[in-house]
Q: What sequence folds into this?
């Protein structure tokens, strides 16, 4: 399998794709850190903020203005753990945590952007935005066919300046058009929504250093999770049920995103819910209908965010 994938429910996107033995394509940040030692500084959020001229500093250096957003400087597993808003100086006095930083608090649209970077030049990108739920959950994500010209222009200029020696995928998280963190990988949850042949183009890119992909037929995609209350871990739906969901209209894939032989606490999940599944589709209405159908195969489970 050409991609270093740790989640077995995402093997479906990469199995059967031919790849040279010496090509490794990471989807997990610890692998990225080891594979790209020249560029792994990108995981230092303090440097990311400084590279944009954003007010920032380590804990112990007092901000001049509030509110600020506090988070770990580097955290490759559970990226958002320990992050919080610090609204005022009184809160700041009790917020110190070693290894944490603060930066200007951004408002605006939160966008995840996957980019193909060829020696500092962005050759392809797709933007995704999330409809948030509660306490770290999402109702669904939209993978946009349309471009965001202002954001694209900013990312192109930043990448040309700071990643001129890099060939590979980059995922940027931005709020209000500014980078809050970056990763030397792509979002593997919805790569099947990037179009037929995209994974094959990805392998060719990591093999040759040149990007070639026919993207003229791109359409909006949607990635829709099914959450339950944190409690017991239910059995997986049967293979027959999973095949049924995958054959519903406009459904591209189904991921059952947990291990049914592990305790709930052994799964990294947001505090607001336990993610059972993700349905990727090219019609929001069809995807929501498929989620309702799938929900019927979890009897006795207290489900969330069904509408």
A:
């Amino acid at each position: 399998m050409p991609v270093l994938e740790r989640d077995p429910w995402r093997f479906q996107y990469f199995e059967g794709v031919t790849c040279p033995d010496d090509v490794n394509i990471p989807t997990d940040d610890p692998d990225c850190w080891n594979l790209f030692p020249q560029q792994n500084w990108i995981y230092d959020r303090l440097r990311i903020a400084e590279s944009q001229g954003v007010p920032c500093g380590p804990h112990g250096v007092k901000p001049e203005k509030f509110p600020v957003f506090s988070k770990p400087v580097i955290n490759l597993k559970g990226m958002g753990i320990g992050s919080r808003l610090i609204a005022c100086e009184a809160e700041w006095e009790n917020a110190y945590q070693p290894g944490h930083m603060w930066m200007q608090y951004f408002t605006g649209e939160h966008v995840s952007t996957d980019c193909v970077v060829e020696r500092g030049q962005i050759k392809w990108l797709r933007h995704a935005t999330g409809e948030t739920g509660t306490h770290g959950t999402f109702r669904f994500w939209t993978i946009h066919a349309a471009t965001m010209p202002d954001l694209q222009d900013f990312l192109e200029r930043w990448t040309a300046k700071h990643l001129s020696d890099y060939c590979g995928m980059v995922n940027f998280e931005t709020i209000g058009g500014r980078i809050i963190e970056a990763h030397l990988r792509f979002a593997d949850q919805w790569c099947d929504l990037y179009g037929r042949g995209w994974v094959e183009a990805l392998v060719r890119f990591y093999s040759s250093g040149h990007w070639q992909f026919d993207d003229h037929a791109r359409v909006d995609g949607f990635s829709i999770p099914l959450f339950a209350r944190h409690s017991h871990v239910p059995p997986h739906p049967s293979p027959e049920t999973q095949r049924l969901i995958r054959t519903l209209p406009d459904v591209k894939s189904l991921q059952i995103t947990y291990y049914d032989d592990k305790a709930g606490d052994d799964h990294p999940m947001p505090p607001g819910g336990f993610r059972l599944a993700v349905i990727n589709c090219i019609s929001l209405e069809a995807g929501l209908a498929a989620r309702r159908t799938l929900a019927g195969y979890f009897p006795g489970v207290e489900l969330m965010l069904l509408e």
